[in-house]
Amino acid sequence: KATVSVLYWKKEEGERMSSAKVQVGRAAAILGGCGTGWYFTRPKVLEELHNFSETHKCHAVVERPKTAEEVRRLVESGKKLRAVGSGLSPNGLAFPESGDVSAVSLSEMDGIISYDNTKHTVIVQAGCTVRTIQDFLSEKKMTLQNFSSITDQEIAGWTQVAAHGTGAALPTVDEQIISLKIATPSGEHHLSRDKNPVLFSLAKVCCGTLGVVTELELQCAPSHRLKETILVETRAEAHRHHYARLRTHKHLKYMYIPTEDKVVVVTADPTEESLKEWDVPEGPDALKPFKNLLGKALDEGASFSQYRGEALSQHTTEYEYVKKVNKAEAEYWSLSTGSRVADSFDVLGFDCGGHQWVYEVCVPSGAPTAPTGSDVGFLNELLQVIESNKIPAPSPIEVRFTSSSTSLLSPAYSKDPDEYFTWVGIIMYLPPGSDRRAITSAFSSFRDLTGPIQERYKAVPHWAKIEPSDGEALKRMGGYYKEQLEVYKRYKAEIDPENRFPWSVLDRLREQA
C-alpha cells in the first residue's frame, strides 16, 4: 500500500474542503481515494464519489462505521442506505441514486478476525480488500480459491455482485462464502448453508439490497504455483481445441481480437515446478508493431496496455483505424507466446487496461462433458455483428468460464452442479485525451446491437456491468431470474419492507416478478 494525498470531497455548494491522507491500493490511487480509506470525520456534507473509470459519480452523505454495532445502530436509524466499497464497479452499482439515500463505507472495518490453517478458512470484516486478505493468507501458506482481474475490491462488494475468475470447475467468488453476518432492518442475521439456507443463498449475492454485510467466513485453499501458458491460434483452431481444453485446464481464458483471425489462448494449471520467468523466445521487440503504428516509442518501461491506450487515444471510434490497432495487438501477442511459473495470485490477476466502458454477459453452456455449443455459437455471432456493422471494437473480446453457483441471484445460478457458464466481455477504452462522449455513444450502440444475440443464447449481464438505463436488458433479466425473483421478493418484503436498501435495477426486476 502507498499513502497519497487526495482531494475527494466537497461541500454541497462545491467549495473545496480538505485533502486527506488515504491509504490506498493500486486502483484506489486512480480512483481518487474512493472507497478504500475514509479515515476522518467531519460534519455531514455531500461528498462526491466516482467509480474507477469516472463514468459514474454521485453526491451523497457518507457514513463510516467502525464496528458492527455502529452498523446495526445506523441500520436501525431508519435511514435509506447503500453500502459502498472500492468504487470499482463499471456501472457505479453501489452509489446512492437519490438525495435521501446515504452511502455506508466499511473501509474502517477492514480487519482479519481469525483463521484456521487446518480447514483453510478465514473470517474477515466486510471492508477488507481482496489484496489485504490475500497478503495475510500468503503468510499462512493459504490463498483465496480464485480471483477476478484486480484485487482492490472490498470483499463484501466483490462477493455481492458474483464476481468471477476463470475455470469451468471453479464457481463465482460468492461460493467461497461459508457464512456471513448481515445487518438488516429486521435485525442482524448470521447465515450459512445450515442457518436459514434460502436466505443465505440470497444474501450472498443481492447487490447490497437486503442490508449491510459486516463479516464473512471464507473457504480458502493451500498456496500453490501455476504454470501459465500463452499461445495464439486462428478462430477455427481455438474452437476445434476448445472443449478438450475446457476439460483439461484448471484455468482457461481467451482473448479474441476483432477484425483479426487471431485468438490469444491463456491456460494455467497447478504445478510443482520451481518459479520461472516468462520463457518468451528471443526475436523482434513485441512492442514494435505499436511503435511502428505510432511512429515513436513511449517512455522506457511503458507497458503493452499503455502503448495500446496511446494508439487509441485519438481515433477510438474510427473503425478502419481501430482495425490497425487490433492488427498491432495481434502481432504483439504472436511475439509474446511462452510460459512461466508463478504464485497463483500473480498469475490470475491482470492489467485491465485503464479507464473503459465494459459490458459482460454470462451464457449457460451445458456441462464440460456435454456442451451445448452455446459458447462458440455466441462468440461467432458476436464477431459477425462487430465486423458486419463495422463497430470500432478494440481488443479483447474477453472470454472466461465458471461452474454454477448456488446463490439464487448469481448470473451463474443453476440447480445442476455440473453446468458451466461462459462469460463474454466487450470493451471500449477511454484513454487520456480521447473524446469520452463519442466513445460512450459508440459503446452504447455496440452494446445494444448485441441484444438479439443475448436473447437467443439466454445470456444475462454481470450485476456490476448492467446499466440501469438499459431497459431491454432488464426485460431479459426479468425472464431469466423469474423463479429466483419470486423468492427474493418474498424475503425482501420480510426483511426490508420499507425498501431502506434500494437499487433501481433490482427494484424494477422485483416489480416485474
Structure commentary:
The structure is a single chain. Residues 1-41 have low confidence and may be disordered. Helix 7 (288-294) packs antiparallel against helix 9. The protein has an eight-stranded antiparallel sheet with strand order 17-14-16-15-21-22-18-23. Strands 8, 9, 10, 11, 12 and 13 form a six-stranded antiparallel sheet that branches. Strands 5-7-6 form a three-stranded parallel sheet, with no helix packed on it. It has 16 helices and 23 strands. The longest helix is centred in the middle third of the chain and has 16 residues, at 319-334. The protein has 513 residues and is of the alpha+beta class. A hairpin with a 4-residue loop joins strand 15 and strand 16.
In short:
This protein has 16 helices and 23 strands.
Question: Mean pLDDT across all residues, rounded?
Answer: 90
Number of DSSP helical runs: 16
**Cα-atom Rg, whole angstroms?**
22 Å
Which regions have little confidence, pLDDT < 50, spanning 5+ residues? 1-41
Shape: globular
Strand percentage lies at 25-35%
The helix content is 25-40%
Could you give a short account of the major beta sheet? 8 strands, antiparallel
Strand tally is: 23
| Distance linking N and C termini | 44 Å
Please identify the structural class as seen in this structure. alpha+beta
Strand numbers in spatial order across the main sheet = 17-14-16-15-21-22-18-23
